[in-house]
Amino acid sequence: MEYRLTEPFTKEKVSAFRAGDQVLITGTIYTARDAAHQRIVEMIKRGEELPFEIKNSIVYYAGPTPPKPGYPIGSAGPTTSYRMDPYAPVMLDLGQLMMIGKGQRSAEVKDAALRNGAVYAAAIGGAAAVMAQSVKSAEVIAFEDLGAEAVRRLYVEDFPVTIVLDTAGGNLYEEGRAAYLSK
Amino acid sequence: MRELNVSSITDAVASLCIETNHHLDPVTEACIERRYAEEDWPVAKDVLDIIKHNIEIAGEGVFPLCQDTGMACVFIELGQDVHLTGGYLEDAVNEGVRRGYTDGYLRKAIVKDPIRRGNTGDNTPADINVEIVPGDQVKIILAPKGFGSENMSRIRMLPPAAGQEGVEDFVVSVCESAGANPCPPVVVGVGIGGNFHKAPLLAKKALLVPLDQSHPDPYYAEMEDRLLEKINALGIGPQGFGGKTTALKVNILTMPTHIAGMPVAVNINCHVSRHKEVIL
Predict the structure, then answer these.
(1) What pLDDT digit, counting tens, does each position of A19-56 carry?
(2) Could you give the CA distance from residue B268 to residue B171 in angstroms, rounded to a whole number?
(3) Shortest CA gap A182–chain B (Å)
(4) Which of residues 3-62 of A touch B (CB under 8 A)?
(5) For chain A, what is the domain count?
(6) pLDDT in tens, B256-268
(7) Cβ of A139: how many Cβ atoms within 10 Å?
(8) What's the complex ipTM?
(9) Which CATH number belongs to the domain containing residue A123 in this structure?
């Protein structure tokens, strides 16, 4: 199935998505990868104010290339998600709605997503120039010292992702491979 | 003795950084086209189509092929009849990387300490490998290497008794456990022989072999084909969504080893398999 996801982003909307569905996202999403996750989770533990509202947020595991003059962003494909596995459950328990990255997740992340009604989607790894076309604005909102790893607020239009882990326990990486092998 | 000012090496490295991050070499692109034509699983074909579109957009020169513009891996074949002037070779290479990644709006992805981190801000230092060869020329190969695939690479010190079957099982298992993580379809570089230092270097150099070339020894050329077939029978497919095209090509490099060992290293590269050479 193909869906469009627009604001407000809610658990009700993402609960309709199933593993393998293509979703075009329009709205505000946030980039955070390794170092930013580490800092955000430390801030949560210390009870500090966070760079963005985690509840119902969409977090894109990405560190874009610098924008050329006249462009909002450089290339912006997904990074491998398992490196965020130690941090993701904390954020999911605070209500994060969607993780976007690529690659397998740990059992802990799958459990945390399921119990919170969150989903995990994949962007096409190595199609970073294509992904960048959907980013209409980008602004560093935290951890500027981290360079590419800083947290950015992106406004995206028809940003294409594929659902990997859905709210019913579906997993595209298992189902897609099995479907091909049994064709 | 031919004299060569190292500033020409800096210039070459800087332009190679920008060039390789926007344009795949024609042989790699042709290989992706061929695998696209051979793929019959619809989801897989769709993903390969997006990858082809990405190559087109990047080719316009504004957006790099991948946001991971890599660690700059530099292989230099330095003719022994060349006298370098005007500075040190390593400094010249790093200056080229600094300039290429800054002027080319490429991502700076190098941290100065592996545990305490801290971005160096200019993507240096590069991974510089120098080999002294006959002649009076300098060949520079630049290969920006992303870490999504680098992290999925493995080495195993197999016992000689493991034989050909042990080698093949290991290579396939590395690709299977990597799954969707290294952005399949991947290029698989295999280094067999040497020691704990040389096998991974061979595997990395195997990623520089053009994808339309096979190992000159028919024994290993057949192993490359067989491994590609086994890896593509796993069903992982482009991006791990399922399909035939898990790997584009397997390339093997070998060297002599010790009577007690059979090291095997597997260096995985994603479909954005970037490398280019110039000769000065």
Answers:
(1) 999 999 999 999 999 999 999 999 999 999 999 999 99
(2) 10
(3) 10
(4) 20, 35, 62
(5) 1
(6) 999 999 999 999 9
(7) 11
(8) 0.93
(9) 3.20.130.10
